[in-house]
Amino acid sequence: MIAKHYIDTPIGRLEISGSARGLRRVRKYEGSPRPTEALPAPVKQAAVQLEEYFAGKRRDFEVQFDWGEATAFNRSVWQALLTIPYGRTTSYSKIAEQVGNPSAVRAVGLANRNNPIAIIVPCHRVIAKNGQLQGYFYGLDTKRYLLQLENPLSFATQGSLF
Fold first, then answer.
1. DSSP string covering the chain, please?
2. Who's near 146: CB < 8 A, 6+ residues apart?
3. Once rounded to an integer, what is the mean pLDDT over residues 51-73?
4. How high is the pLDDT of residue 16?
5. How far from 25 is each of 7, 71, 97, CA to CA, in Å?
6. Helices 72-81 and 105-113 sit at what angle, rounded to 10 degrees?
7. Which of its termini does the chain have fewer beta carbons within 10 Å around, N or C?
8. How would you classify the pairing of strands 90-91 and 22-28?
């Protein structure tokens, strides 16, 4: 059975869902939270760890994933995303190389877009080869916020350091 839990964060309300097998989804949720039933350990852990992340007290997540019926390629991209260090970025082309298919840059972008576990599987850390912020399913402002949270010196907005 899939359980759902909701937390409010600086980027909006997040819905966290999963089962005893693992975390299935972290996504923004616009509606009112539904009553929370008994939560399996991966959902509880994700909620606590996300709150710590937004408070600046957590850099790495330790949760079990259940990617259901995702394709092998998507799983390989998501696993590669997990290797991007906190506060750092990489490019879509570097991820394509990392998964052994350098010509699959667009497919990597699509896998990022289909990432069901926002923030914890850090697709927000992938930027264009030229260093520009590109695409994020919750918008570039949210992507910039997450990158700034993780590395304020590199991703500060103009004038925010003074």
1. --EEEEEEETTEEEEEEEETTEEEEEEE--SPPPPP-PPPHHHHHHHHHHHHHHTT--SS----B--TT--HHHHHHHHHHTTSPTT--EEHHHHHHHTT-TT-HHHHHHHHHT-SBTTTS-GGGEE-TTS-----TT-HHHHHHHHHHH-HHHHPPTTTT-
2. 11, 119, 124
3. 95
4. 96
5. 13, 16, 26
6. 80
7. C
8. unpaired
State the pLDDT at residue 156. Answer: 58
Please confirm, yes or no, whether 123 is among the known catalytic residues.
yes
Distances, alpha carbon 121 to alpha carbons 105, 127, 159, in Å: 18, 15, 30
For the segment 82-105, what is each residue's pLDDT rounded down to a tens digit? 999 999 999 999 999 999 999 999
Report how far residue 6's alpha carbon sits from residue 152's, in angstroms, rounded to the nearest whole number.
27
Q: Which of 16, 80, 119, 123 is catalytic?
A: 123
Output the pTM of the full model.
0.90
Other CB atoms within a 10 A radius of the CB of residue 13 amount to 15
User: The dihedral of CA 52, 140, 115, 27: what is its sign?
Assistant: positive
- Cβ atoms 126, 95 nearer than 8 A: yes
Backbone angles phi, psi at 43, to 5 degrees: -75, -45
Q: Residue 96 CA to chain centroid, in angstroms? A: 18
